[in-house]
Each structure stands twice: as C-alpha cells, then as structure tokens.
Amino acid sequence: MSWFEKLMPSRIRTDTNQKGAVPEGLWDKCPGCGAILYRAELERNQDVCPKCNYHNRIGARQRLLQFLDEDSSEEIAGKLSPSDPLKFRDSKKYRDRITQAQKATNESDALIVMRGNLKGNELVAAAFEFKFMGGSMGSVVGERFVRAVNTSLERGIPLVCFSASGGARMQESLFSLMQMAKTSAALGKMSRRGLPFISVLTDPTMGGVSASLAMLGDLNIAEPNALIGFAGPRVIEQTVREKLPEGFQRSEFLLEHGAIDMIVDRRDMRDRVANLLSVLMNQPRPG
Amino acid sequence: MDMNFLEFEQPIAELQAKIEELRLVGNDNEINIQEEISRLENKCNSLTESIFSSLTPWQTSQLARHPLRPYAYDYIHRIVDDFEEMHGDRSFADDKAIVGGVGRIEGHSVMVIGHQKGRDTKEKLYRNFGMPRPEGYRKAMRLMQFAERFSLPILTFIDTPGAYPGVDAEKRGQSEAIARNLMVMSGLKTPIIATVTGEGGSGGALAIGVGDRLLMMQYSTYSVISPEGCASILWKSAEKASVAAEAMAITSPQLKKLGLVDGIVAEPVGGAHRDPDAAARNLKNSLLESLENLQHTSTDQLLSSRYERLMGYGEFES
Fold this sequence. Notes:
The structure holds two protein chains of two kinds.
Chain A lengths: L2 H5 L19 E3 L6 E3 H6 L15 H8 L6 E3 L4 E2 L11 H12 L5 E8 L2 E8 L10 H17 L3 E7 L7 H21 L3 E9 L1 H4 L8 E4 L10 H8 L10 H6 L5 E2 L5 H12 L7
Parallel strand pairs in A: 6-7, 7-8, 8-9, 9-10
Antiparallel strand pairs in A: 1-2, 3-5, 5-6
Chain B lengths: L9 H19 L5 H20 L3 H8 L7 H8 L1 E6 L11 E8 L2 E8 L5 H6 L7 H16 L4 E7 L6 H5 L2 H13 L5 E10 H5 L6 E5 L3 E3 L3 H8 L6 H8 L3 H6 L5 E3 L10 H20 L3 H13 L4 E2 L1
Parallel strand pairs in B: 3-4, 4-5, 5-6, 5-7, 6-8
Antiparallel strand pairs in B: 1-2, 2-3
C-alpha cells in the first residue's frame, strides 16, 4: 500500500481487485477504430461499428435471419452431416474436430441454406459459418450448396450466397477439392437457365471457395474491407519475399481491379439485393 | 549421391554405378565379365521392383515431382502427330506454364492442353515452375472453347504444384480464372479426358481437370494441398510432410479405391522417367481407349453423365 492510499480514509477506499466486476460481453472494443461499444447497440447495428463502419464477422444463422423477411425462412438439407471417409487424423482426429465445431457453433457443418422471402419475393439464401472449421468446404458444404441451386431451379427463384471461408477442408482431401467442381457445375446449370445468382463475399473468402462458387456470381458483391483472394497473404509474402501493398486483397482492391461489381454496406444489403433481384427478375421495385 | 536418384532409390543407383564400372573394365580387358554384369543387372531389376512395389505415399509424391519426370511436351511429342501449338489468352499474355494446341492421335483430331514445367533453372523460371497465372487458365479456356467449336475431344495433362500465389496473379483474378474454367468445362459440348501425369496440386490442377474421365499415371499424386502445405497448417511443421501425405490419400491406387479416379496408367519399372517412351505408349493406349468409349456417346448423354458424375462427388451422412 502506498503512502497516498494510507492517507485515504477506509470508507472511500475501493478495492482495485474488483475492477473485473463488469459483466462480460457487455462492451466490445471495435477492431477498426478502437472505440468502446455497447454490445447491444452494436447488435442493433448488425455488428457494424457505428463510429467507423467496421464490419465484424457474424454467424451464418444470424446473417440469414437478418437478411430474410421475418418468419419466412425454412432450412434446406439441414440434416446432412459430415462423415470421415479417410479416417483423417492430424494432431487431432477429424471426427473430434467435427464434434468440437458442432458443439461450439451449434451447427452441423459450415454452410446453412434457407428458402425464404426477401421483401416478399421468394429466394434461396445460403451462408457460410466461419466459426465451423474456418468455414471450410467439404462434402456437406458442397452438397448443401447444390441442393440450394436445385431448389432455385425447381422453383425458378434466385440464389444468394454469403461466403466466409478459408477454402477447401483439408481433412476431406480430394473430396473437398472436387466440391469446387461440383458447386461450379451446378452454377453453370443455373446460369444456362437464366436464374440469377448473387455472390456476397464477406470477410474472409479465400482459396477453394473463392476459386469456385464465390467468384461465379452473376453479380459479385463484397462487404467493405473483406479479405478476398486465392492464396493467403502469408503464402504470397513467402513466395514473393516482399511486403504486400496496403489494402491488398481487400474489397476495395478487388473493386479497383475489376473482380467485383460493388461494395455494399451490410446495413443496406437487404435493400440493395432486393432491388437488384427485382430488376433481374423483371418484378416491380419491392416496398 | 546421384541427384538423378531419389533418396530411397540410392541402392539402385549404387548397383547401376557398379555395373557401369564393370562395363568400362570389360572394354579395357579381354576377361569376360559379361556374366557378372548380367547377374548384377538382374539383381538391379529385382531390387527396383521390390523397392517400387511398396512405395509410401511420400515416396510417390517425390517421384511425381522427380526432376527427370516427363512433362507435358515430352508426352505431346511422343503421342500427338502434327502438333501445332497455340498461344495466348487474347487479352493479356501467353502464360508459359500452360501449353496447348491441336494435333492428331492415331488419326483422331484432338486438342491437347497441359501444365509445363522447366527442366533446368532457366527454363524452370521461364515456365514459372509450372504454376499458371490467370492468363494461363484463360488461355486454356480459350483453347477448350475453340475445341468445342470444331468438335475436337480435349486431352489435358495435369502437372503443377498449384496456381501461382503472387501479387500480380491476385490482381488479375486468379480465383475467378480458376472458377470460370470449372464452370465452363462442366458444360463443354465435347469429350474431356484429364490425366494427372505428375503433381496434381489443388485448384490449379483442377482448373484443367474437370471432364468425362480422370486418369492418373501410376506414380502421380492428386491432392487438395501439397503434403508440405498440409503439414505446416495441421501439424505446424513442414517436416511432417510424409505423415500428411499418408493421411491425405494422394496416390493413384488410394484415389481409385475411393472412386475419385477412373483409371490408372501403368508406368515402367522405376517410374516414367526411366523409360519415357514406354510411359508415353501406355498413356496413349489409355487415352485411345477412353476416346473410343466416349466417341459413341451423344452430346446430351455426354453432358448429363458428366453432370451426374460431378454431382456424385462427396461423402456425407444424410
């Protein structure tokens, strides 16, 4: 105890050990600008920082429920679950990794598909759960994506996919690689049918997912400042042995180089996508 | 240590060196050592056979990347008659890591496209180690659409560490170039036969690998990521590459068993590089067989079987 603290009468003395008494998760520090934000307020703002517009990563289910009209959604192919055809094991068994990811996310795999309405118009929407093994694409993700396409084809409705993925799932090896061909082929069918597919690329969309379904949108839309690319920045740095330019592989960089059509703020996503789809489907402007 | 032999091949290298030595002695002297030489040659053959009959996936992976392994041109020149190479993507450049052109195989007109690696340092750099940039994939796509226009079956030879991970490649849309090829190939109205001849490295390999038949040379590999890459991510150490190779199922027999590959093209004892002519002959026969099978299929049937095949990829519980 310092001489100053000794001077203070005990009744106005506060035990410094009680600093941690603030309930956890009530406040968040914005990774973008460092502002301390009230968690509930951040949530109301769809996890976008009200001060600097930093787009925090959000879960797939939350994303879809925010995007679709209230109480309009119905999940597709939710019952599929991953198997382990190679009995893969690194430092951990793949089986255990799956169980762990399922417990942590309450999802059975890294892609969630729903049929629902967007401002009254029917569509299929899919979203990657990045917290499920880095949103990696294995057999279940590929199959669910194809079922999403099939539902679109059956009902003649558009498809929107929000991607957030590190790429192919290594634990399923070549099965995962082949999901790139599988999902792209399904999109080819959709394209020949003239049904719109809008790909929304969110932070991060890399590797095998970026090099297949995510880059094949009739419209490619990105959220602000999302990391999007084929090879990861670290791999590129090791290959070219130089520091990467500021903003490399970010949404703004991709827009500048012609890879995406537009950057859309999450809070405007419903309005903008609804409007775009209504133009493409030759429907009146949604209210 | 002979650099033309991999570590596990060193016993073979030593025997062959001994045989060479004896031959030199034999030339100088009157003594007949022919018997000894043929005894050693037999021993060498059976040694090679026994080493190659039980290769580990990691050893296969080294063979697939052997510095003497035949590359696309080596096969094209042995298999395709009247080959005319085509160049460029018509919008940016001519990528040297992917080569292609038209020619004939036993009288059938075909389009051939393959990754091309370089043999010496200078050529390796020129070919960018067989790692294409977006213009390479766009060149391949142009050639494939050209083939469709003239009803030429497409043969592709896959041998790449992967698509090039560089700043310029990202700027020009590496992801989009690969994705576009996957989509376009799934709907091309002409037969496509893809063969992994060496190293089938991930999306950069698949980008010329979607089709009606997938063949693998016996000692080639095909994987979602290189064993080194997988090891450094999952085991946090590139040194575990051999373990990763084991876990990932990257060899032709493993992938055939999993139903991901249609056929395996036998390689001569000791690998394709020990007898490129024999390897090319086997490859040619397999290609001709696949061509014959596909030729009698109508375009609609071809496309619907290709689509079914692609949709069938994956293992999951429902």
